[in-house]
Amino acid sequence: MLLSGALLGLISEESSAAEYDAVGFISSTDSSGVSVTYINQATGSTQTVTSQEDGSYSFEDLVDGEYSVRYSKAGSLSVLDTWSIPSDLPLAEVSMSDAPSGATSVTVNVKDGEGADVSGATVYLMSGVSEDSWWEDVSVGYTVSNATGVDGNAGFDSLTVDQYDIRVEAAGYATGFGDTSDTNIVMNALDETNKQTVRVFDPSGSPLGDATVFMYDATSSTWYDATKVGYTYYLHPTTSSEVYVYAYHEDYTPSVKKIASVSGTDTHNVNIDTNSAAHDDLIYISEAPSNGGQSMEPLSGDRMVKLNPGPTASMSVTTDTTEMDGSHVIAADGSVNFSASSSTSPVGGLTYSWGSETFTNTYAAGEHTESVTVTDEFGAQDTASITIIADGDDPVAAFTAIVKTNAGSESMAYNGTNLDEDSNTVVFNASTSSDSVGIASYSWNFGDESSDSGSVVNHIFDNPGAHDVVLTVTDTAGNSDTETMSVMVNDATPPSAAFTWYYLNETGSEIIEKSMEGEVTYFNASSSSDNSGDDLSYAWDFGDGSEATGATPEHTFNGTIEDGFNVVLTVTDSSDMSDVISYKIEPALKARPDIYMVSMSFSNDNPTEGDVVTLDATVKCLCEDAQADSAFEVAFYLDSLEGTLIGTAMIDGADLESINNGTNVNVTATWTAISGAQTIFATADSNDIIDESIEKNEISKVITVSASDDSSDVTSMTMIIVVVLAAFGTVAYIYRDSLFGN
């Protein structure tokens, strides 16, 4: 099948250019010579071709889009069609009907107001039989036209006997109207009576002298261009006419101003580039032309003329609300801010039923509809609405708790005793909460400085004790309610014991983790911790038989032992769980004085029985690092330190001060000699008053006492022994003095 021979319309497409060629056919009594004119609805581009003898016509390089197409020919009724390219290809055949005709001739004479003939005027006759105009669904009487000659006459033949409407247009004149009952038409020249002065300003407020200014007289459906002088544009409408003044500029979006009824002169300041919805290639009029104007192509220059689609009302809520099913939910008696700033109009000039583009209202409980009606420059209107639900009811918060011991275990309802810290998971479920409108959020506070959100949440408590779990339910209006559950978490973690200690030296400085015998050691267990946060109890064992309680006890170690004292701290929490820590503490030894006997002598080295002998002992102290702080006693004994006490002498007062300064101090005692070789012992600090570094304080010396009947041999032997012992003692103390620097 050859499509080119079977279809009424033909099409060829150049796919790379996205342009289309179209061929159509016209069916009529005489289908040749028909003017076919299209206007691209998007761009305003237009083209006219004439049909061939076979009724065919064609267009090349059509782009995608919508087209208005009018078929016209004298003697035929015009037809308006629309194309959607490429979906309407191939083109359907168009049928045209014959226009009414007859044998009547009519001559129309056109004069000006002073009776002079007007030549070059265009005269339109419109019959009572309708044909399609350029405006969809708007008809016009079958129209024929002719121009007046120098005599002001325009002749028409082959008319019917019916009455025709007359429309006359001429440059410099207002459009005139009449009918064939009186074919003499008088036209009024455009004069200064209603001169409209127009000044056009750019966005910065500067006047523009290169704008395009024109007007549309809606009363007569006529377009008039302005005359320009410098930066001013002049228009001359007729009295009482409805006029639309347009200002266009290549650099800015256009503006239009409506003059509802012209009366006298006026001045208009037109600000352009104020309406982003305006289009530089389009001109909008308020309604379809009439009085024959609908037969004219909807073009003004290279701009397409369209009907004003009217404004598009749009409103929004600028207050924080909750949207639910297309409505905005607020709390009862709350206020809502609205804005209609997103409303648009291609002709601009929007006004709002609120009085401005913003509006605020307060709403009692219930459902309310708020509307705004916007009106554009031409008076066209549109309305937008928003539903406001003012919720006066608080939600009801409720939740349950179940416990899981681990991820795979079955859950059990929380019963107050079955929740352990760290290991158990609690599932809180607030799905039983309710609200008359809708719940927007669930907020949880677990009482342990943690939180969560959602209708069902899981939580593990790290610390034992009582925790108030608080659920806050907020509805879409912002109303809220809370529910609290007290949760007891079992303690499963023992405390952690820790302590430090120190003593104060002679300057008052803390000597950390050291102890000194005889000085207070300060213990501090405040760094012990427990996750429960409850008070801890402290039990101390100082390893020397002493004990204490409390976080910061004080203890004095009297002396030291090998490897130190084992100090043990036991910390117990409120759940009776405990921890133990211990340290070996070996107190440092203090410096001590060393008192010793330097020498001992007798007032008579060879006494006779019954003689009184003065015993003289020299005492000294190594007291550079520590001094003797108390008076002490020096004792003299016979035969041994456990023997007979001969006598004592005190080191006190000035003697004590001297000995602390390293000076030798002599003490004496008297003894009544008894016969024989006797050993005299002297010991310093005999009653152990002084704490010494070395407790070696005695000295001894032999003395021989003669009896009245002693033999010389015995005496001689005794003397030898005495000399030997005396020599030994003297050597020993000389050696000791040399060791200690005496």
From TrEMBL:
What are the leading ranks of the lineage?
Answer: Archaea, Methanobacteriati, Thermoplasmatota, Thermoplasmata, Candidatus Thermoprofundales
Q: Which SUPFAM superfamilies match?
A: Cna protein B-type domain (SSF49478), PKD domain (SSF49299)
One protein family per Pfam: PKD_4
- Leader sequence residues: none
Q: What residue stretches are annotated with the PKD domain? A: 425-489, 528-557
Regions that span the bilayer:
714-735
Keywords on record: Membrane, Transmembrane, Transmembrane helix
| Database matches in CDD domains | PKD
**Full protein name:** PKD domain-containing protein
Which superkingdom does the taxonomy of this entry point to? Archaea
